[in-house]
Structure formats: C-alpha cells, structure tokens
Design a protein that fits this description.
The chain has 4 helices and 21 strands.
Amino acid sequence: RYHYDGDLQVEEEYAGVEPGSIYLDPDIFPDPYFRHYLWTEVDSDPDGWLSESDVARVITFDLSNKKIKWLDGIEYFPNLMLLYCQNNQLTSLDLSKNTELIQVFCYDNQLTSLDVSGNTKLEMLICNNNQLTSLHVSSKNKVLKNVQCQVNRLDEKAMEALVSNLPTWGNASGELHVKKLTDEKEQNVITPTQVHTANQKGWTVYARLTSGENGEYNGDGYIEPIDNDDTSIDLSDLADKESLENVVVDNVYYNLTNGSYNAEDNCLVISQATDMTAIISRSEERRVGKECRS
C-alpha cells in the first residue's frame, strides 16, 4: 500500500486500515491541491487514508483560492452541505452525488456547463464569472431561491431552459441575477418574455452595475433601483450602454426615448419629466431642464 506524505508517495506495508477507508490516491483525487486539502484538513491521523468517520464529518468544503483545477473525488462526500470553491481554475464540476448540498459558491472559475438538477436541497447557487453556456436546474430543485449567474455565456436558448425550469415561488421570493451591465465579458442573453416568465413564477430578475448596486431588470435595458428612497441616481456606470431606455426614480417610471443620455457628461436629460427632483453625475447634481455641463 501507499502512504500519502505531502508531495511524496512512499511505498510501505500499512496495517490496521479501517474498512471502508479511502486512500488519497491521485487516481481518485487527481488535483494535488485538493488532495493536499484533504490530507491536512480532513484526514484526522493524517495517514493518507480517509476513514469512514473522516468522510462522514465533512459538511463544509472551503476550497476557495487554492489553484484547484479538478474536484474529482468530491462524490465520496455524500454529507457535504456547503461548497465554497470560488476563485479557482475549475473547468468542470460534477455534483450529482452530493445530494445534501444547500449552498454552492463556484464563481470566478472557468466552468462551461453546470448541472444541479439532481441537488434537490440546494437553496443558493452562485456561479457568476464563468464561461457557462448551459446551466441546468429542474422541477426537483423545489427549495432553490437564489441563482446568480451573471457574466457567463448563456444565450437565449440556454436562458429559456433555465427560466422555464425554475421552481415556482409566491410573493417574489426567488432572486435571479443574470446581468452585470458594464462588464465586457458579459454575454448572457435574457429577453423581456423570459423575464416575464420568471416574474410569473415568483422570481425577481436583477442586473448589477460595476458599483455593486443591483436593480430589477426587464430584459430590455430597463433597470429599477432596489432602493427608491434616493432622490438622485448615478448613471455614470452606464456610459457605454446606448440601448438603455428606461429608468425609475422616486417610484416614477421614465422612458428615455423621450429624452437623451449624454455619456460624455454622465448627464441624463428627460424632456417630459418635470417632476423629477434631480439627476446626479459623479461630481455634481443637475436639475431637469438645466443644460448638461462638463
């Protein structure tokens, strides 16, 4: 048998191994960084073998920022509930055997597809900033309430599959984050019809600005700030978004086709919005009806 000793595998006779133990074999756990994590954080001896009790104790994996390329072998941990594997180099992730998962944070990787349709206890999926062309959920995901998949490559067909399979919630309990409007890597596509479908199922669809603020999104360039108590709005993050057509301030809906947005000056001019109190740029407040100045 082999004893795992950091980067070395030392051949030796190994007596008294608990039945059902899993050897930290590169054929089972091919990624050296994942293997090292298991050896240092899970293997209670550490002797290079994961006992049944070692495996059973694993409820959380905190694998963020560890240069991991593969999570092969994660299927041996059926009690896993919380998976944090963000900021790695993952290109694939098979969670089909981890049926106890409640939260998955796998953002900032290189995933091209993800299927959580069999993870029936999953409540939160944070998979933004990948290269996803498909994201599979199903009617079995009855407790899924938060999906953040912005900055991916989900085209209209892939988004249709995602939205149509979201569980139905009452009182707009679900959150679907699909866009980061000012990120040049953003390639997701969602139509107004798909947004409407999600809304009908109790999901609020959100888009995010570079400032980190979220707003409700209608799939057609319309963003409604979550906090409508503000008396001004900063549109400087939208300088490159010529398709922006609508904005809501103080719970009033304004159609930008009746006005214009001067990207250079970060100034919004709305000709038919005389009751709007103020428009703000990065540096100063400008009132409606006043000429935009640099």
